[in-house]
Structure formats: structure tokens, C-alpha cells
């Protein structure tokens, strides 16, 4: 290990005693998920939607098309969600806004 590299601890034993991750530590699972998401972003073109995404119905006869707003790709891939399951569950909401909670 070089002198400039950061130590990435494995938190399996830490999370057994304390459910919170210290603010000064980036868990190994988070680093691995970041790499997985970067790999998936490099593989797939996220700027173009796949064929049929968001399409509810389409009639060619008199050109009638309907769209479904709920039919879209998730921001975090299912693989990344599965990797992060040990830290809790993904909060799903209807908007991309994050609720601020002050303690």
C-alpha cells in the first residue's frame, strides 16, 4: 500500500455493535457499489431511453399514443441496491426531492 492511499475498512464487525457508520469512514461496500454504478454507466447509454420505455399504448390507426410516467429505469441499478441492502432499504418516493430532517 502506498503512503497516500486511504484505508478502506471492512465494517462487518462494526455494524454488529453500532448501527451507524462513522462519518470519517467510507465502507468497502459503498466503494464497491460506486465502482459497479460507474461500470454500468459506461456500458449503457443513459441519455437515450430504451425502446418502449414510458409507452403505455400506441395505436397506429389514427395515431394515438399514451405514456406512462411510472415506467422508467431506476436511478440505482438493482445490482447496486442488492449490494447496499445490508445498510438499510431504499426509500422510494414519487419525486426526486430529499426530505431534510434536522436533529
Describe the protein.
The protein is an alpha+beta fold and 103 residues long. The protein contains three helices and two strands, in the order H-H-E-E-H. Helix content is 25%, strand content 9%. Strands 1-2 form a two-stranded antiparallel ribbon. The longest helix has 16 residues, at 28-43. The radius of gyration is 20 Å and the shape is elongated.
Q: How do the SSEs run, as a string of H and E?
A: HHEEH
Measured by DSSP, the beta-strand proportion falls in 5-15%
Beginning-to-end CA distance, first to last residue: 39 Å
Question: Which regions contain 5 or more consecutive residues with pLDDT less than 50?
Answer: none
Assembly state of the chains shown: single chain
Give, in spatial order, the strands making up the sheet with the most strands: 1-2
Overall shape: elongated
User: How many runs of DSSP E, i.e. beta strands?
Assistant: 2
The helical percent reads 25-40%
Rounded to the nearest angstrom, the radius of gyration is: 20 Å
Total domains: 1
Structural class: alpha+beta
Please work out how many helical segments DSSP would assign.
3
> Main beta sheet: strand number and arrangement?
2 strands, antiparallel
Mean pLDDT value: 70
Helix and strand topology:
Elements: H1 14-17, H2 28-43, E1 55-59, E2 64-67, H3 78-83
Antiparallel strand pairs: 1-2
Task: Please describe the structure with a list of short key phrases separated by commas or semicolons.
single chain, two-stranded antiparallel sheet, alpha+beta, elongated, 103 residues, 3 helices
